[in-house]
Structures are given as C-alpha cells and as structure tokens.
Amino acid sequence: MGNFMQTQQANALLDTAKANIEKAQRLIQGRTTPHINTKAMLGRTNATLFEGQMNSAQRACVLGFMFVHAMFVMLGMTVPLQYLAYVLATTYHETGRTMKPIEEWGKGQGHSYGEPDPNTGQTYYGRGYVQLTWLANYAKAKAVVYSRNWQQGVIDFVNAPELALNPFYAAQIAISGMMAGWFTGKKLSDYLQLDGSFDYQGARAIINGKDKAEQIAAYAIAFETALYLAIGTDIERSVIQRGSTGDDVRELQLGLGLNPDGKFGNATQTALIHFQQQHELNPDGICGSSTWTAFEKEIYGL
Q1: How far apart are CA 229 and CA 41, in angstroms?
Q2: Quick one: pLDDT at residue 29?
Q3: Pfam families from the xrefs (predicted)?
Q4: Beta partners for 128?
C-alpha cells in the first residue's frame, strides 16, 4: 500500500510539473529565451544519468527545475543553461539520485544550527535538494521564493522551515541560493567563463569545497548536453551499430520502445532498420547523423 501511495503521489507531481511548464511556456511566448523540449530533455537524461530507469519522481524533479528556470526567465532573471545544468547535477548528487528533497542526516547534531532558535522555537538544519541551513538562510529564502500564485515573500520558511522540503520551493532555493552564494559565499556567476563556458569542477566550491568535484562535473556535462539537445542544438553523437554499447545506444532503445540495456544487439538492429525504412532512410542498421536527425524529429519533435 505504501509503495502504491508513493507512486500515486509521484505521478501527481509529474502531472503538476508538466502543467506548470506548459503555463510558463505560454507566459514566455515572445521572449528571447530558448524553448526547452521536455521530451528531449527527459529522453536524453534518462539514458545518460538514470540508465533508462527514470521513475516518475525523478521526472517530476527535472520537469520542476525546468519550470522554475522558465519562471525565473519570464520574471526577467538571467539564468544561463549552465546554471541549470550544475544545479541539477548538484541535486542529483546530494539526493543520491533520488531527486527528492531530503533532510540533513542527524538534523544538525553537533552544529549550533541544530539547536532550536530561542525566538522561533524552530531548528534550521539542512533541508531541500541542496541543504539549506541557518536561520539567516531560511530568512533569505522567505524573501525571494515565489508561491504557486507567483507571489514573493509569502512563504514563511522562518516559522515553518519544513516548507523547504516542498519540491517547488526546494528547486527555487537551490537555484537562487547557488546564484546568490548563500551556502559558502561562492556563487554560480563566479564560474561562468568569458568565452561562455562553465567551470563545472571548480563550481563545487559553491556547496562543499572540492568534495566529489570531478564526478559532479561529469553529471553537469551530461545535464548540459541534454539541455542543449532540448533547445535544438546539435550535440556530439556516436555512430552506433551492432556491437556498440553506451548511452547513445540506450537513448535509441528508449525512443524505439526497447529494453534500454545499452547494448546494440539483434533486437535493436531490427527495430532500427524498421525505423529507417519508415523514414525513407538507408536501412543499413547503422545509426549515423541522418538517422539521428530523423530520430530527434520523430521521437522528440525537434
């Protein structure tokens, strides 16, 4: 019964996230921000970061961050896609890939922020996708986070700090906090390079020094690639065929409705040849640039 209820709740979150993204996209019409294709974002992310087994809670989280990003852009904020990629990568790491807001293990035990505040009676230990700690940071969150009616300053994290576990608020806290340097004083803009690239490895200092910096940078690059694909930018892909393995194979399998084991075998070859025949491509069972282009158009609508 517990798993059934969790699945229902996750599916409800997923439906809400999709509806919110559609709302944001309608509001953003006419602005110069690129449209992020949700099918492409989820398809590529599922293949490269979730081994083809992305669940509804993980989808809802990614969609939720996409909505918050769209909302911030609509409100006039500058939030480069690299920022979103790195926040998603940090969330992926900090939540152990569950993509669910979490409470700090030990609830601040051994730290002064783990003691109840004498004025509010609340304890400001870590909560969220990225651990929000200290009363001062909960107050900052109260000042900047938007409600579901897009009102700012009305979500009282100071007197109800558990609200930082709400996915919609947690996503805003993660992006806003990492942009403003709430956690260590370092902020996302410190790592955006003059040539437009981003220092994903150095950016770990925003949260936790150099801990797992290289690993999280690799996650960020995977999210960035998915985001670029989702806005219609060409990404580097392998030419894959029978005997190939890896994420590109898994993405192809997901799109063709196959078991996403990442191994290009008989079933994948047969399905690919059928796809190529349907789209008047050379049915050679090799997925090269022309087949990838047709795949992205047919499966993602790019």
Answers
A1: 7
A2: 43
A3: PG_binding_1
A4: 102
Q: How far is CA 67 from CA 33, 85, 220, 222, in A?
A: 13, 14, 18, 19
Give the Cα separation of 16 and 235 in Å (integer): 30
Separation between Cα atoms, residue 252 and residue 256, nearest integer Å: 6
What pTM, to 2 d.p., does this model score?
Answer: 0.87
Nearest to 24 by CA among 220, 180, 168: 168
Identify the pLDDT of residue 26: 46
Joined together, the tokens standing for residue 82 give 């690299």
Contact assessment for residue 157 and residue 163, using Cβ atoms and an 8 Å cutoff:
yes
